[in-house]
Amino acid sequence: MRVDEYTTIWNYTAAKISDIRHIRMSGGEVMEGYRLPASCFIYSIRGSARVALNDVTHQAEPFYLLHGAKGMRLDIEAKEAFHYYLLFYRTTLVFSRWKEIGKLLESSNPFNIQYGFRPDEPLGLYSCLCSLELTWTNGDKLGRLQATGLFYQFIHELLWQLKNNEGKLVKRDFVTIATRYMHEHYQDSITLQSLAEQLNYSVRHLAVSFKQQVGISPIEYLIRIRIGHACRLLVETDASLRDIASQVGYPDVYYFSRIFKKQTGLSPARYQTQERQQPGAKDRPLNVSELHIGTRRALRYTNHGNDNHYQYNAGGSTYMKRNSKTAILLSMLISLTMVLSACMTGGGAGSSTNSTVVAPSSSPTAIVENAATNKETVRIISTEKGDVEVPLNPKRVVVMYLIGDAASLGIKPVGVSEIYEGAAFTEELAGADSLGPEYEVNPESVMAMKPDLIIVATEFTYDKLKSIAPTVYIPYDKLTTEQRIEMLGKVFGKEQEAKALLEDFQAKVEASKQKLKEAGIMDKTVTIMEGGAKEMFITQSTTFGRGSQVLYEYLGMKAPDLIQKNMNASETEAGQSVSMEVLPEYAGDYVIRSSWEGMDDLSNNKIWNSIEAVKAGRVIEAEFGLFFYTDPLSLNKQLDLLTEKMLETAGK
Asked: For residues 428-446, b (16+ Cβ closer than 10 Å) or e, as one string?
């Protein structure tokens, strides 16, 4: 485990708690076969137990911390009364340095691995979890915001402890990695040789170790995964056998049929007929969602239709069933939509009354006219992914991440990705439905909104949604705020509004500069920091958010020399973490501290109180939700707040 790399990744990650539970098991009680619904921390606080994640066994004594990834199988055998916490969470990468951090995630992802250790100072983590559980269980919306702050405090404490315990970590073995890889890539062409190369092990070592631990060969395991998915497709869809075979990784439909019959004892057609005739077949869970190593006894959790999906429900031994439709069905619906659209617009062969003519243009935007009515129908937008035809007046827009940018231009989307509490544009988008985190968007949920235009900020999301409706890719990590707004202006035919918006903001920047200059503040240094009682993350970038763009780019203020010399010097780092002991060396005349409910209280910290800016009252708290985004609405409010607060302290 490379803790420094994990710390870097967490600095570019926004996290959301899914649930926290304090569970008590009696001596001799056994819980088997529970699949983790999200990334999870398991922290034992009393008693002892044998805890296994994907058959990797840990002896959990008091204050043993274990991390597991979504989909891993959890088994617990309590030797005596055993008390522990389950803390579920999900994460989304922020978009600063997206590409570089994405590459880092490929080789070192702290959210998808298993590790365990006993911290040297366990009570710090215990205290965080106690406060977090109380706040989460009893809190309203404001309480949930405080819980998020406590979660970051927990992560900070965890990373600090991990740094001191790197040699004691228990990692998941390569067989666990192999099974997870097959579940995620069963549609790809996988051979024993390619799997061994992927894991950097010899073919023989992989085959022998896998069979010893799992009981079957890797290829047999892969076949079972594929046939499980094929069973569900046969029962729930009317897709052709050829399409189903291709979907589960078999380009040869005849070979697929032979493999299917060998595994199930029935031909695909016979299996489909038999299963559909049985009552409740559609709702009966199949192998695809239950394939695992070992027995089938599960801990049941209930889903009450909100974010709190993992409430403990004592008793029962049923699996949670996934009601998501398959990719095949999604593709069929998309294809049907496209066919119907073509019919409605007369786009088929032989149609002449509604034919279209493209007006040639060297501009990134062109107009397509209806030849029959001479009325404009769509505009053509040039993007990194090629030209996209977008409706002239889109009515049902879905926006992923670039929410504030769209709101700045008066766009009213029907669906948006998750918005952090405190964002400047929350009221403007009150009527939009949330589609969850950008990185976890469900194409079926987007399709259900019947969008006529989709705006995305990453290639990952573009690839997932591009077949649903015209999709415009506006790369957040490659464009400035001005470039994003200008491009959105072209997409929505609001070029003049975009220009006026940017000019108004620049005028406000100049006015703020003048006020700060007259107050003698413009030549003062500013440090942006985020963290707690042990260390702080010091921003060394103009694009990291947290007010960096307003202060360092637009206002042109400087950081202390120790920070300024590294400003934007690294393409992968937005700053660095420093211990509290050396923090005064990095503090400028003004300190901007990223803040949230539940963050460490430093009011009695001697080192913090020794900083000149703190003693003089020149510390400005930057609310996380407001200062996370870099759209014009957010930047305007950030500029107003920072200018006002600095002017208030001008005489100090």
From this structure: bbeebeebbbbbebebeeb
